[in-house]
Inverse folding.
């Protein structure tokens, strides 16, 4: 029977049960690739928002995108630590200071997943308000309110990291984690996007009834809002597609006794945890692909970097 020594922070549970160098080597290679992609792409996205060559990214929504990118960048360094740990596992060696490393990886993972999910919720709400209340949008979605939201979500996220050292049982905490990081965002986002698509339908009907002088401008604004909505939906889809395998394995780990005793299940569980990182690497490419002002800013920043290197 497989049992996890959760009471010993210096114990590497998976190293003791998965004696498969090829498996660990594969995860090591994938980990370094993911870490490099996440760190490079999100650092460049943040550099682009900071430089903003055309001064087109100075908006509250860009603060939310920057916040999501910061959490993704932080996750990239966590993935790098995981890849280093997998290197030791490949060599069947215990990593020095494994207890500290595990704690750092855990804090980064819990914090960034929470911030990523709720940043997407905030972006979705901003899209809804922009579509349903276009005249009041700028007065409702302000930079000050976005900054307050960012501070609050970081404080809440970091606060959730202390639960494992309290009296809350580990299995209860992991289920709370799964539902606060996935189930609740899924319900909220479903409700938000039902409202978003209803608002888009109402705006389209209003356009058909509007005067000929304003219809062209209104169509342009509505099309831009529709594209941004689809961009957020793609980011949301990536988030949940990469999170759902881990969400499922967390539940199976607690409710399926045969899974707990299966080495193959634990291999799948570890691989699913690595999949979480994929959306963090893809998000900057989604902005470059879907949002023209970000795409233009990316190219302008590339020119700036090229000139500095010459």
């Amino acid at each position: 029977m497989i049992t996890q020594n959760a009471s010993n922070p210096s114990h590497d549970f998976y190293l003791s049960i998965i004696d498969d160098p090829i498996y660990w080597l594969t995860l090591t290679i994938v980990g370094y690739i993911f870490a490099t992609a996440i760190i490079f792409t999100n650092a460049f996205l943040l550099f682009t928002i900071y430089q903003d060559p055309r001064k087109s990214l100075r908006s509250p929504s860009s603060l939310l995108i920057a916040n999501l990118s910061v959490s993704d960048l932080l996750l990239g360094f966590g993935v790098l630590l995981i890849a280093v740990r997998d290197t030791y596992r490949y060599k069947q060696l215990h990593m020095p200071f494994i207890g500290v490393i595990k704690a750092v990886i855990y804090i980064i993972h819990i914090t960034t997943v929470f911030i990523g999910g709720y940043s997407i919720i905030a972006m979705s709400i901003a899209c809804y308000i922009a579509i349903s209340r276009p005249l009041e949008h700028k007065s409702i979605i302000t930079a000050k309110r976005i900054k307050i939201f960012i501070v609050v979500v970081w404080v809440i996220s970091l606060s959730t990291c202390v639960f494992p050292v309290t009296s809350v049982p580990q299995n209860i905490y992991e289920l709370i984690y799964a539902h606060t990081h996935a189930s609740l965002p899924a319900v909220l986002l479903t409700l938000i996007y039902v409202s978003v698509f209803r608002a888009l339908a109402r705006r389209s009907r209003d356009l058909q009834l509007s005067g000929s002088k304003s219809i062209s401008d209104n169509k342009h604004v509505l099309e831009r809002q529709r594209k941004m909505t689809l961009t957020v939906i793609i980011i949301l889809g990536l988030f949940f597609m990469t999170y759902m395998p881990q969400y499922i394995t967390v539940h199976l780990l607690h409710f399926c006794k045969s899974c707990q005793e299966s080495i193959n299940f634990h291999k799948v569980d570890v691989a699913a945890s690595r999949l979480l990182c994929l959306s963090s690497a893809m998000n900057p490419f989604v902005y470059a692909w879907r949002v023209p002002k970000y795409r233009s800013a990316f190219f302008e920043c590339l020119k700036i970097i090229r000139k500095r290197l010459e």
